[in-house]
């Protein structure tokens, strides 16, 4: 019977339908697979809490992929921008830590920073962030923003969060400088210079020297460590004394040995020798006072050291020094011995401008 069917005229028609059906089925499966791999399915939940799939090639999916403000594109751009920013911030963090005597090491010691070091690193971190997002800001604009973040605590908060995240990935804070340097440095240094006329008595410079005391206790700016802090003309009022030139420099020095290489003593330090050499050919009366103390000292310490130096100048000494453990003072007076005596002067006020 089977042979009869195979030999019948309908056998060709039956096999033809079978071939057409299989070919159509293959095309449908291939089309479905193409659409499946062309659009990534996104699993969402319907109102009944059951999962259903989107992104199967509908016109709605094509519109969302071709639109710029779709969620996947926004997420990718957000990730790239933040990744770029934090790569920059991590580089800035390592640089700021190294400048302050620390570094992040894999499985390092995990120490805590001294408070003044933490403030330094936080300021430098904020400075790097501002330059990354707004590179055309002026230095004054950046310093004002840093002062604001220091007041609000934002800089330290960001620094601590970054260090905590690094520690969770086994990158720990490790010192690279001796403990006494981390604690005492950067040293705060003050240079006061007062210039008078040719052969002017030193006593005529004393009111100006005493007036400079108002700035000796100020803190140097972190961003401009060797700038002239104050410079101007000291008006002698009605005393008959010529106007004096003055200059005050404030500096942070984070590299030993500072102004006084010896641990303690009263011998003439190199800064005085250098000052004497620079004034060797002038006939103008010139007084220079150097003051230095450690970073954790109160500003009254610097003021007191400066007062001691001025007192010795008033007593007639031409040069001197007194220092101990990175704190102290030194001074030099450029004038012949005969001019150390005061001259008679009329009474009158004086001021620094």
TrEMBL record:
Membrane is among the record's keywords: yes
Span list, region Disordered: 45-65
Annotated TM spans: 12-30
Keywords: Membrane, Transmembrane, Transmembrane helix
Biased composition (Polar residues): 56-65
Name the record gives this protein: Uncharacterized protein
Organism encoding this protein: Phytobacter massiliensis
Organism classification: Bacteria, Pseudomonadati, Pseudomonadota, Gammaproteobacteria, Enterobacterales
